[in-house]
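Reposting from the mailing list since nobody answered there.

I have sequence plus structure tokens for a pair of proteins and want to know whether others read the tokens the same way I do. The first protein:
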Amino acid sequence: MARLARPFDFLEVAAYSEDTDKLRHANAWQVRLYGWGILLVAGSVLAGAWLIVRQAALEIQRARERSDFVMSVSHDLRTPVSSIKVLAESLYLGHVAEPEKRQRFLGTIVAECDRLADMIERVLFFVRQEQKGMAYVREPVDAGRLTAEIATHLSP
């Protein structure tokens, strides 16, 4: 029952259903629909939250990997630079008198420069790969030849 607004506030309006079973049935459907709607919204929110947390965890992992990579690269780049600097300073300051020793120092400087260039090339390779600017191409490799090249490169 409801009262009407002024100036009809003396009137009361009431509505009654002739078929109460239909009304109860409609009410039950409405309750079910609201329940399923709430479950659907809650499920969507939980799924969205799970996706966000998962994506955040992946981004954190990528950031850690990048940080570790940068730390490793900076450490690896310092070694040849330090060697080059020490040898070049010794030559520049005239601390190496023997021509044989000078030649060996210069050879080491050249080798360290080559090593440094290789490292920089590898860093650029990884940067390009992360930016999706490169793709892998698989091809057969002679492992014996590759091992021999590496041994030659790493031998003193």
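The second protein, same order (residues first, tokens after):
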Amino acid sequence: MSDDTDYGVPREEQEVDVLARIISESFHAPVESIQERFPKVGPDNLRVYRRAGGVVAGLWLIPMAQWFGGKSVPMTGIAVVGVGPEHRGRGAAVGLMKRMLQELHESEVPLSGLYPATQSLYRLAGYECSGGRFQVEMAPRDIRVKDRGLSLRPAGPDDRQAIEDVYRVHAVGFNGHLDRGSYVWDRVYEFRKQPATGYVVEEEGRITGYVFVLQQGREPYGYNLQLTDLTALTPGAGRRILSFLADYRSMVEKITWFGGPNHPVLMLLPEPYFSLSLQMYWMIRIVRVAAALEGRGYDPGFRGALHLEVEDDVIPDNAGRYILEVEDGSARVLRGGNGNLRLHIRALAPLYSGFLSPASLRTAGFLEGDDESVRTASGFFAGSTPWMPDMF
């Protein structure tokens, strides 16, 4: 890393303006819209990369958490990584990412996550694909669910905490779902400056499901629906929401939302008259090996020990041998051991999330280990297919 580089929070308003311009030119977004988002991100979460005293690249950090194995693991999301057009091709993006990861490691953050515009850059920094974001598309006339027995009403300001509680109960059961903070929740309530209308389902006086809808005009008449979120904790709540969406059939041709291959609401449809398409893979990076492994949950019925040897050429403190001991759904990590399962930090990410099995990683050449260690790892990291509905 050259001596003329520097990294940190913008020092003055002029550097904030340069960062806004870089993001605008990188993502084809108006400078004004970028500047409007800075207060939501928070000035302390903006980062710039300087060369010879001038800002050449930047990003912003989104502190939150992510569910794995039924436990919420602190995770810092990385967004809008951009390099000024005149500074591209000279290693600024890689330098920025490495400095940022060193900062997160020193701050004892276990995980980092992002949606990649290009995978090759982030793989150089130790990230790897660890789950997907899927779009569900259906026509109201094809839903064919008629169950209006439960109360459904517009959501009010006083419902927000109950809605967040419903999401949290749902999310804990799915590897990869975000433990949402205000930044992500605000995107549920308002998408691209368009407020979404929320509706809640109640059972015995408590909210057990909700849906947020946006109307999008289409030619020559009518409109489509974009759902910014949909969650149901009971079959009744799921059927009530589906019936509510089916009742749009006279004017709406298409409903789209972001779910997953094992979203429980899809199981309530009498026929699979919907399409499910992968929109994007998301990537995670194990920033602190021991903290990440101890932070996630495991099958309470599985116990044993796994000897790992991890290679990490970006965060040297991560490199070396570990013993992962699992019992009663929790883990303890010790330094040392035999290193029977050998892998790069990149490969640890999809193993950790459950995106790829140890056997698949070994077949692809990303992991080396004996059959017994592979079987043990399979038991440790088994779980639901990792996906998330949120973009950040």
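Reply #1 (J.P.):
I read it the same way you do. The chain has eleven helices and 20 strands.
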